[in-house]
């Protein structure tokens, strides 16, 4: 019996010492990168880089690590013994859009619609839609947020400035809803997993995005990178908006 146990330990021991935590840092040409997905595809485990670009993941010699982010070229690296002796340094390259940079100046920047004309019935419409189609808005979390109150605040975002008749039309709610219903990439899974927006807040998030007057040309397939940047930016702002509302920092 003892010989069997020793034999088992003998075979197990090399596996234990060959698999250990590997440390590294990820950066681009400008700075260290946070929230980069790091996957050991040999062991099917995943982690993310922290705010300082550092990561730690279990690995063995000859394992393959994959470094991935929406805005950077994917990079693969096969682990060697040297990687355990020194901290890995991973450089990622940004995905470059071949189109000329879109410059938005004061003349072409899309601004909110005429406050007197456009917002008169918007609050009523949102409120009625929540009442008539509660299934689209889901259940509020247990701590309870007032959807109608939040909608009222979103309406106020339309009143900041007036629109010029010759500017590019901004992206509206219906366009976002249609996009997330049909697109293979921009869908509910992307909303929840990447943008970190709970599904029950989807309609309110689209209302919030409409109020930000995103450039309508970003819906063109060639401008997808610009649209992604806007969605990530406004998803963070929306979550801050909800948090401030919950804490009473924003009043109707």
Total number of distinct structural domains: 2
Largest sheet: 4 strands, antiparallel
Number of separate helices: 10
Shape: elongated
Compressed to H and E, one letter per element, the order equals: HEEEEEEHEHHHHHHHH
Termini distance?
A: 75 Å
Q: How are the strands ordered across the major sheet?
A: 3-2-5-6
Number of strands: 7
Characterization of the model:
The model is unreliable at 5-17 and 98-113 (pLDDT under 50). Strand 5 and strand 6 (72-78) form a beta hairpin. With 252 residues, the chain is α+β, with helices and mostly antiparallel strands. Helices cover 39% and strands 16% of the residues. Strands 3-2-5-6 form a 4-stranded antiparallel beta sheet, with no helix packed on it. It has a 3-stranded mixed beta sheet with strand order 4-1-7. It is built from 10 helices and 7 strands. It has 2 domains: 2-91, Immunoglobulin-like; 115-246, no CATH class. Helix 4 (122-132) packs antiparallel against helix 6 (147-156).
How is the topology of this model organized?
Elements: H1 2-18, E1 19-27, E2 37-40, E3 45-48, E4 54-60, E5 64-69, E6 72-78, H2 82-85, E7 88-91, H3 115-118, H4 122-132, H5 134-137, H6 147-156, H7 173-182, H8 188-193, H9 202-211, H10 224-246
Parallel strand pairs: 1-7
Antiparallel strand pairs: 1-4, 2-3, 2-5, 5-6
